[in-house]
Amino acid sequence: MTTTDHSQMMKQWQFTKSGSPRDVLTMVEVPIPTTCADDEVLVQISHVSLNSAFAHRLIAYYGVFDPVGAFMGRPGVPEKDFSGIICDLRGANVTEFNIGDRVFGIGPTSFREIAQGVLCEYALVKRDHIVKVPDNISLKDAACFPITGFTAYCFLVEKAKLKKGDKVFINGGSGAVGVMAVQLARTIVGPTGLVVATCSPMKNDIVRNLGADEIIDYTSHVLPDFLREHYGSRPFDVIFDTVGSDHALYSNSPNYLTPSGSTVWLVTKRILQLLSAMVVPVYLGGVPRRHIFESLTPTSSRMVAMAKLVEEGSMKAVIDSTYKFTDVLDAYDRMMSRKVTGKVVIEVNDLDR
């Protein structure tokens, strides 16, 4: 008879087929990793924050067929955003982190590793995907930043090159990335700049307190028409679309975006329209405004830059709700309700206690 040494085992949530999170996720017990690549470390997970895009990929339906969701490996572990503490398993090339360091970061992101998530008690992660948690930030708060803060930083600072005095429009100001983008934009453009964001009326106060000067109720207006009427005479320098549901926001952007301005698409549900925007030149009817849509690769320098902004208070965690590790299915129900502001956080093992 073979017995299992449970001291070397861990719990994780996993899926073996597509479907809604409540229907396909189960908690299982698996061995804790005992080997790692030269550029990896083993992290004991403290907290994980949920990502709505992953839940949609579990369902494998994005309004169009989602090839990434459909071809994720099985069995798979969901989620990518985590915080935790480095264990005694480190690769030979990992010299910048020590055992016991508090870190936060992003799980594997390559296409072949897309199903290797972090909703588990221990996870192997690449050194370029993690950064030390600032001393003034809790592990719970730190789990809210990896993808959302990283995305806001890369697109607004690196790609769109937002600067002091600029005017920026953020579509989806109360979403997980939106709350980071509003805060970061406020810091960058300063008192002479303008931050405009969309949200539902019930979230106005939250988004305004994060730094938005003006708020648009997206439920009451056709955005391209409203923007043309109210901002045509004071056009934006950057449009950051975290929703991606309406290509008209970009196709009509010459009415409210400066000629040198940029539209950043975080997601899109209109693949053919996206391809058209990317390849059709202006003289053939393309939109005469710069568009930015690309995959972001975590690097040590980017993670350090994002962590510095977090330490300085340019981005603060916005937590909608917190759930125990055993209540993950309830957490996904909450996130899929579309009533969430900020992040839904899972307490795997609160290692700050």
From TrEMBL:
<dbReference type="GO" id="GO:0005739">
    <property type="term" value="C:mitochondrion"/>
</dbReference>
<protein>
    <recommendedName>
        <fullName>Enoyl reductase (ER) domain-containing protein</fullName>
    </recommendedName>
</protein>
<dbReference type="InterPro" id="IPR050700">
    <property type="entry name" value="YIM1/Zinc_Alcohol_DH_Fams"/>
</dbReference>
<dbReference type="GO" id="GO:0016491">
    <property type="term" value="F:oxidoreductase activity"/>
</dbReference>
<dbReference type="Pfam" id="PF13602">
    <property type="entry name" value="ADH_zinc_N_2"/>
</dbReference>
<dbReference type="InterPro" id="IPR020843">
    <property type="entry name" value="ER"/>
</dbReference>
<dbReference type="InterPro" id="IPR011032">
    <property type="entry name" value="GroES-like_sf"/>
</dbReference>
<feature type="domain" description="Enoyl reductase (ER)">
    <location>
        <begin position="20"/>
        <end position="346"/>
    </location>
</feature>
<dbReference type="InterPro" id="IPR013154">
    <property type="entry name" value="ADH-like_N"/>
</dbReference>
<dbReference type="Pfam" id="PF08240">
    <property type="entry name" value="ADH_N"/>
</dbReference>
<dbReference type="InterPro" id="IPR036291">
    <property type="entry name" value="NAD(P)-bd_dom_sf"/>
</dbReference>
